[in-house]
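User: Could you go from structure to sequence for me? I need the amino acid at each position, not a summary. Structure tokens:
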């Protein structure tokens, strides 16, 4: 019985991440506009630029941004939105890593070099 309940929970989580509502009326999906996608692309570019300033911009961010721009130009704002969101997440992750790295690099030095 527990396995069955866990299975239902896993299925519900998978469906919810795919945008499917379980046990309730599905909401009408909002039409994604080009302006919304462009704002996400700009946000990804800004975060990526900040990460690059810290010497930590990830190469894949450029490709995701370029893909989002191309797909948007080709008239598919929904797919472009997905790519732009992914670009924002990747750029944010690279920035988070840069921040962590700026605080933790000294811990990897031998004790005499770290000022201990």
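Assistant: Here is the amino acid at each position, in order:
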């Amino acid at each position: 019985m527990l396995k069955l309940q866990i299975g239902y929970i896993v299925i519900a989580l998978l469906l919810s991440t795919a945008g499917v509502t379980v046990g309730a009326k599905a909401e009408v999906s909002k039409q994604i506009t080009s302006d919304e996608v462009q704002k996400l692309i700009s946000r990804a570019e800004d975060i990526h630029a900040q990460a690059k300033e810290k010497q930590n911009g990830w190469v894949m961010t450029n490709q995701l941004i370029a893909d989002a721009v191309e797909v948007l130009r080709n008239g598919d704002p929904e797919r472009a939105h997905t790519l732009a969101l992914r670009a924002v997440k990747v750029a944010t992750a690279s920035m988070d890593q840069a921040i962590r790295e700026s605080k933790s690099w000294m811990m990897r030095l031998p004790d005499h070099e770290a000022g201990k």
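One structural detail worth keeping in mind: Helices lie at 2-17, 34-53, 59-73, 77-104.
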